[in-house]
Amino acid sequence: MKISFLGAAGEVTGSSILIESKEANFLVDFGMFQGLNSYEKNMKDFNFDPKKIDFVLLTHAHLDHSGRLPKLYKEGFSGKVFSTKATKDLAEIILYDSVRIFEKDKRIGLYKYEDVLGLMRLFNCFNYGEEFDFKNIKIKLRDAGHILGSTIFEVFVEGKKLVFSGDLGNDNAPIVKDTEFIDSADIVFVESTYGGLIHKKREEGVEKLLLIIKEVIQRKAVLLIPSFSIERTQELLFEINNFVENKYISDINIFLDSPLAIKATKIYKEYKNIFDKESISIIDGGDDIFDFKGFKETKDVKDSFKILKASVPKIIIAGSGMCSGGRIPFYIKQYGKDKNNVILLNSYQAEGTVGRKIENKEDIFINEVRVPILAEVEKIDSFSSHADSVKIKKWVLNMKPKRIFINHGEIERALALKEELKDSAETTLAELEKTYLL
Ligand SMILES: [Zn+2]
Q1: Rounded to whole angstroms, how far apart are CA atoms 426 and 418?
Q2: Ligand 1: distance of its center to the CA of 363 in Å?
Q3: Which residues contact 197 (CB under 8 A, 6 or more apart)?
Q4: Is the pLDDT of residue 375 over 80?
C-alpha cells in the first residue's frame, strides 16, 4: 500500500492523507490550507485522479480538514464520504460559509454553492463504536473528543490495522466526551499541534473568565470576546451559563453576534446523545446549557447596531477567533479605544493576524481607520481543544504501534513529539507529497 500526505505536513492546515491499497483508494480528510500562500496551495491541481478515489473518511468538520472536499467533488470525485452525522451537519454550514467568503473575495473561488450541494449528497453517516465494511476494508469510528462529531478512524486494510487520530481533544473539555483510547494498532497517524507542550489546567481559565466578567460588571464596561464559531463559542456559552445559573454573576447583557456560531449552536443542541456526562446531567436537570438570562443571539447585521445601544455592562462574543474577519472588528473599532473595556483573547493568535497585534497592544487598522488598543487585553490559554504532548504520547503508546507517522504540527512541534515517541516505534515526520510504501 502507498501512503502520501497531501497537506498538514510540517504545518497545521490542509489536512489530508491518501492511501492507495489493493482493495481501494481513499483519503483521510481533505482540508483547506490557511495562512501564508494558502490561496495558491488550495488552487493547485491535484497530483492524483479524484475519479479514482473510492471514499473519504472525514475526521471532523473544521475547515482545515474538510475545506477542499467540494473541490474534489467538482473535479470528478463521486465516491462516498464517511463521517458521523454531527460532522456532516457541521461541515455543511462551514462549507457554505466558505463559499460566502469566496464570493466576497475578488479572486476565483475554490468551488461554488452547487459543489457543496453535490458533495453533501455523498455522505454516509455512522455512530461512534459502529463498524462497517466497504470494498473489503473494515472501518470503525471512535470519539476523538475534539469538537462535536470528531472521529478517530480505525481502518483494517491489507491485513494491517491503521489508526488515524484526526485532531485529538483536550481532557476535561466541557460538552464533548474525552478522547477514546484504542488498545492496538500496526500503524498510527497522529497529529502534533501541541507536540512537546503541556497545557495549563482548564479550571484556571474558567476561574479567570469569571473574575474578568465580575470586574466588567463592577466597572459597567464592555467585554469583547473574539471566538471561533465551532466548539469554542459553545464552550464559552456553557461556562457563562453555569455562572448565571449558579448566580455567580447577574445583571449583564450577553450577545452572540456570529451567524455561523448561532447555526453551529443549533446543531449542537440536536446531539445531546453524544455529550459528556456532566452536560447531559445539567440538561436532564432542566437547563439549556446554551441559554440563560440576559443572553441574546444576533442574526441580522442590523441588530449589531442594537447591541451598540444596549446598556452596559455587556459581553459581546463574535467571530473570528483571531479578529481577522467576522463581526468582532466592528466592535473593536467601537470599544477598543476605551481603557475601561476589556478584550479577552482565548485562543492562539497566529503571527500576522489582527488578534496578534491586539495581544501586543499595537494599533490596528479596521477599514483603513487606525484604531489604538487602549482597552485592557486579557488572555486565557487553557481553553485549547487539542490534546497536549503528555496526552498524545499516552494515546499513541497505548496502541503499541510498530510504525508512527506524525503530521498536523509545525516542524518544531512535530519534532518534539517525534523525540518523545522515537524509542517506542519507527517514527516518521510526514513530508508533503512524499509517498511511503508500506
Ligand atoms: Zn480541528
Answers
A1: 10
A2: 30
A3: 388, 389, 413, 416
A4: yes
Q: How far is the CA of 153 from the centre of ligand 1 (A)?
A: 15
Q: Go through the chain and tell me how many residues it has.
A: 438
Poorest-confidence range of 44-53, 104-113, 247-256, 282-291?
104-113
Alpha helices in 199-258 (DSSP H): 202-219, 232-245
* For residue 320, cis peptide bond before it (omega within 30 degrees of 0): yes
- The full set of domains in the chain, from first to last, is 2-198+384-437 (3.60.15.10), 202-379 (3.40.50.10890)
Cα(295) to centroid(ligand 1), Å:
27
Q: Identify the CA nearest to 219 among candidates 376, 379, 378.
A: 376
- Model pLDDT for residues 198-218, shown as the tens digit of each residue: 999 999 999 999 999 999 999
Instruction: Tell me which residue of 37, 36, 29, 35 sits closest to 7, measured CA to CA.
Output: 29
For cell 474534489, what's the residue?
A: 72
**Sheet of 435-437: strands edge to edge?**
123-125, 80-83, 55-57, 25-28, 16-20, 2-7, 435-437
Give distance in angstroms: CA of 247 to centre of ligand 1. 33
Give 266 Cα–ligand 1 centroid separation in angstroms.
19
DSSP per-residue letters across 126-188: --TT-EEEETTEEEEEEE--SSTT-EEEEEEETTEEEEE--SPPPTT-SSBPPPPP-S--SEE
Please provide the DSSP assignment of 15-55 as one string: -EEEEE-SS-EEEE--PPP-STTHHHHHHSPPSS-GGG--E
Dist. CA 26–CA 57, nearest whole Å: 8
Residue 258: partners with Cβ closer than 8 Å, 6 or more residues away: 227, 229, 233, 317, 318, 319, 326, 327
Q: According to the model, what pLDDT value does residue 392 have? A: 98
pTM comes to 0.96
Enumerate the β-bridge partners of residue 134: 137
How far is the C-alpha of 367 from the C-alpha of 178, rounded, in Å? Answer: 42
Q: For residue 388, what pLDDT is reported? A: 96
Q: Can you list the alpha helix ranges (DSSP code H) found in 270-313?
A: 277-284, 301-309
**Placement of cell 451537519 in the chain:** 89
Distance between Cα 422 and ligand 1 center (Å): 25
CB 116 within 8 A of CB 180: no
> Up-side HSE of residue 297: CA atoms within 13 Å toward CB?
17
CA atoms of 222 and 257, how far apart (whole Å): 14
Residues 6 or more apart in contact with residue 108 via CB below 8 angstroms: 43
Q: What is the pLDDT of residues 227-271, one digit of tens each?
A: 999 999 999 999 999 999 999 999 999 999 999 999 999 999 999
